From TrEMBL:
It comes from the Bacteria. This is Uncharacterized conserved protein, circularly permuted ATPgrasp superfamily. Pfam families: CP_ATPgrasp_2. Residues 72-447 form the Circularly permuted ATP-grasp type domain.
């Protein structure tokens, strides 16, 4: 039986960890009926605000409330400092890597990453070769998934650099906790996160095209049927900028314009929340009705900034993930502060053989997969599921990686049976512009099913408020 690190209680004697003591004292004083009433109140308020997540292929309906747990995940200041240092280092190296592969390709020439890993990657965009982007920043917004395992060490599980989502839930979870339990924030020194929209807006302003001092910024959404539409509308509203769809924009005179009631208005920075393929039907998918014809030509001319940049996805592909520690050493001449999870690349003959021999013990993931789909969690799978996955691996080994099943840390969580441990991860959001910045914390996701290691909202996971203590 794995020994799971408990975020609240020490493994040695079961005593409450120092940074949880104030919260535990408060929790023990609360009658169960008070907690239950507050939970119901939170659900009602989330529904009223419309904080939902669309689940594709869900026969029960297109919108689902993401379960919210009122026991926070608490991280002491010292641990956050280490995490923050490692995140800044990692995202800096990833941006340098993306710039390099679309320009000099030094990391390929040095033999650190095989050329075919780049050029055959579905997210590699040859259209970006040699194109300069503002401040050489490609991943303006990165969501880096962190897990704690073993004796309490932090690991990076994956890098989300295309259109990472979830920050609206981080902000709304905090707002909800402050509304329900103001006394907790009086008793604990908790670092604020509500300035994230201001930080994001400043970050987007800082990467405007050269010579633009007062940029017009928009959030571009695929539309109201997208799973994260609530977040798109929320962030636009919080930043005080327009939420647009592709049909609201057009290209003229080598610039992008937005249709308004006062006539066309030039757009300088587009925070886009749709994938590369749909951005420009003249350059990518000709059947896309979501994009802006001619957008790529304006982008290549440096007349508009896209956040995140086209072609960024090559660096968050799971087949590139194993090389990130080497990127840090290559570009920054530093040792990684945060470790990767050990990873077997099934395209390699010896790694495939090991994976096939140990399928019941491993987690196997599609290199382009996301949202918890297309993966095998060996210890939680039936013999039939394992054998089915074996066939998939043999048919297309280069489409998969494998990792040991981590003993993810757990945190006390309110479930139907009462308070019980459930596995969690953390997604901090790292902003890159003239500087690299982030708010203290992130989105803590929790696997609500007993024993489950899959925290994704699309797979029934919930969320918690994340407290970074300032003392």
């Amino acid at each position: 039986m794995p020994n799971f690190f408990n975020e609240m209680r020490a493994d040695t004697d079961g005593g409450v960890r120092e940074h949880y003591r104030e919260f535990c004292r408060w929790l023990e004083q609360q009658p169960p009926e008070t907690i239950e009433r507050k939970r119901a109140e939170a659900d009602l308020m989330f529904r009223r605000v419309g904080i939902t997540f669309a689940v594709y292929g869900d026969d029960a309906g297109t919108e689902r409330l993401i379960p919210f747990d009122i026991i926070p995940r608490i991280i002491p200041a010292g641990e956050w400092t280490q995490l923050q240092t490692g995140l800044v280092q990692r995202v800096k190296a990833l941006n340098m890597f993306i710039h390099d592969i679309y320009h000099d390709q030094n990391i390929i020439k040095a033999g650190i990453i095989p050329a075919e890993q780049i050029y055959r990657n579905a997210q590699y965009r040859p259209e970006m070769q040699g194109i300069s982007v503002a401040s050489d920043i490609y991943a303006h917004i990165a969501g880096v998934d962190i897990v704690r395992a073993g004796a309490g060490e932090f690991y990076v599980l994956e890098d989300n650099l295309r259109v990472p989502s979830g920050v609206s839930y981080m902000l709304e979870d905090r707002k909800m906790m402050m509304r329900l339990f103001p006394e907790l924030f009086a008793r604990n020194k908790i670092a604020p996160v509500d300035h994230y929209p201001d930080l994001l807006l400043d970050n987007l302003r800082s990467v405007a095209p050269m010579g633009v001092d007062d940029p017009t910024i928009v959030v571009m959404t695929p539309g109201m049927y997208n799973s994260a539409y609530f977040e798109h509308a929320f962030l636009a509203q919080q930043m005080g900028v327009e939420l647009v769809e592709g049909k609201d924009l057009f290209v003229a005179d080598n610039s992008v314009y937005m249709r308004t009631t006062h006539g066309p208005r030039r757009v300088d920075v587009i925070y886009r929340r749709l994938d590369d393929d749909f951005l420009d039907p003249l350059a990518f998918r000709p059947d896309s009705a979501l994009g802006v014809p001619g957008l790529l030509s304006v982008y290549r001319a440096g007349r508009v900034t896209l956040a995140n940049a086209i072609g960024t996805g090559v660096a968050d592909d799971k087949s590139i993930y194993p090389y990130v520690p080497d990127m840090i050493r290559f570009y920054l001449s530093e040792e990684p502060v945060l470790n990767n999870v050990p990873t077997y690349q099934c395209r390699k003959k010896e790694d495939l053989a090991f994976t096939l021999a140990h399928l019941p013990d491993l987690v196997v993931k599609e290199v382009h997969g996301a949202g918890g789909y297309g993966m095998l969690v060996g210890p939680a799978s039936t013999k039939e599921q394992i054998e089915d996955f074996r066939k998939r691996l043999l048919a297309r080994p280069d489409g998969y990686i494998a990792q040991p099943t981590l003993a993810l840390s757990n945190c006390p969580t309110f479930v139907e049976s009462g308070v019980a441990p459930r596995h969690i991860d953390l997604r901090p959001f790292v902003l890159s512009g003239k500087t690299i910045s982030m708010v203290p914390g992130g989105l803590t996701r929790v696997a609500l099913q007993e024993g489950s290691l899959v925290v994704n909202s699309s797979q029934g996971g919930g969320t918690k408020d994340t407290w970074i203590l300032e003392r």
